[in-house]
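Translate sequence into structure tokens.
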Amino acid sequence: MTTSPAKKRSTGPVTIPEPVSDLTDFIGKVMAYAAAEPLFKCYRGQRDSSWENIPGLFRPDLKKLEECEKRAIRDLISVHPHEFGGDQSMFDRLVRMQHFGLPTRLMDVSRNPLVALYFATDPGPEGSRSDSMVTAFAVPEGREKYFDSDSVSCLANLANMTKEEKAEIIAIREGRVKGTDKEAERDRVNAKQVYKRLHRFIQVEKPHFLPIIDPIDLFKPYYVHPKMSNRRILSQAGGFIIYGLKPPKQINFAHLIQETRFIVPARAKPGIRAALELLGITESTLFPEIDKAAKRIEASYTRP
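Result follows.
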């Protein structure tokens, strides 16, 4: 077992056990990990082990979308207002946007490691040439939140801020004088106009929200338990890790979300995918929407 330093925007230190050989080996390694790790755990599968664990919004090829996050969100709501009519918070809207395919500051995870493994063994358009990866996240108690948490509202409503406003918040943090009393620093930054603007967005969904944000909280990722009102979230035992702003280098978090990465060699992926489907973990069970079912039924009658 090896430990490597965290990659860019990683949630914490990274542990990489020996690669898995088949489904039985994966289950054994994950069970040993889960038994030894007392913290809350969630999992994410990616078909290429070289990819970073980051939300879609922060992918390098989507830099323009990240810069225009606020406008992109309003564009989607403006053309489909009824889809978002029942949403009570910005987090609810981000979940719905993620569901419809717009990259957001949410990163999909699952509480079921076998669901993550299914996504990791997706051959993708390039086939099965690349090794894949299942990442287990061990979430400290203070980083585990529910959909109605004030911390989640603070991070979700960063999506309402412009590129310049988010840069200003980062600059305020970078300009902090070390040794300053924590409460005095908190009061100072919350008196800034850019923070007051963020307060107003949060108070739209939470009128009784006290306008006191701990500045460091805007840079922390959190695991979020969503409302189980979405069929796909239910089927996939889904959850999200929500990301805030890119942290300045000098920020050292007291409690990190630890990553353990299980590498699946390319040669093992087809056999593992077939074994998972024999156990009932299939596209049909993970994507229960009617449009997905229609496409699968059509394919079953048209494949040679």
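Note: Residues 1-9 have pLDDT under 50 and may be disordered.
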